[in-house]
Amino acid sequence: MFVFITFKQDSRAVIEGCELAWDYFGGITEILIFDNLTPVVDKADRYSPRINKTFMEYSQFRQFLVDPANPAHPRGKPIVENSVSYVKKNFFAGETFLSREDCQERAAAWCTSVAAIRIHGTTRLKPIELFNDTEKEKMAIYDGIRYDTPYYASPVVHTDHHISFRKSLYSLPTKYIGKTVEVKGDSALVRISFKDELIKTHPRLPEGKRSTDFSDYPKEITPYTLRNASYQINEGNKKHPAIGDYIEFLLSGTYPWHRLRSAQKLLRLAEKYGHARTAAACTKAKEYGIWDVRRIERMLKNNVEENTALSDFPTLFTDSPRFTRDGSYFKNYN
Prior knowledge:
334 residues; alpha+beta; Nucleotidyltransferase, domain 5; four-stranded antiparallel beta sheet; three-stranded mixed beta sheet; 13% strand; elongated
């Protein structure tokens, strides 16, 4: 006997329990009889039970047969449940535990020191002796490498070419936007399929991260998605050197990407209002140290991009200020 302690009854918990059992017994059984629990059996049926997809893949990986107990049968489900009653009365009754881990450790020890050496009510033998003499040699070899239980999802591809899976984003080509895809992700890879055909594989990322293949975007918008400052500057120079010079000024600094959209907007303004007018506005904006492209847009809308250079402004003070004092006035120590 092996007892697995869990607060959940989902596919991952059931598979983890099986993995611990194979490790405890030192091998894998040929057949596993289940009490029609939902993570293993999607639909109970005496003749054609439907096995859960996740658990079916696991059973195929470990190469054992899943044989659900016969529902509503006097010698099916009750036989499976008898061991539960035995564990409740002989292990849990009257005990307290520090944690689930503590309970699991003590349960495994109880299986070895108590349950394995009792006289079984049916066989009239000690289970450990029967196991060592007859059953152990019939078990398949367990390699000790834990099964990497995958997650499954069916997300819709958003307009930004990405799907959300386990709180991370993964890109797909344009033609799949708006379609529902099937995702299978383990600790290493995320495999994305559409109509049973594998269409994309990404490395698995931590939560909050993004895996983007820029070849998934249309060619005409790829430069924008790359966040390439040099591309924006070169495009500005093609239109007019003053525009490229201003974009270089706009995207200066260690992290230029926060103004990348402003550079893209400026390139669109050049197409709308003309290269020469936009270049004049850029020259004026740079002279004034203006970073806001919306102000350049207002210049162009109001047709003032060539009015009043910085040198044309009058000096604010023509005479020395009345109360200006020499620095020595404030020297109050010897």
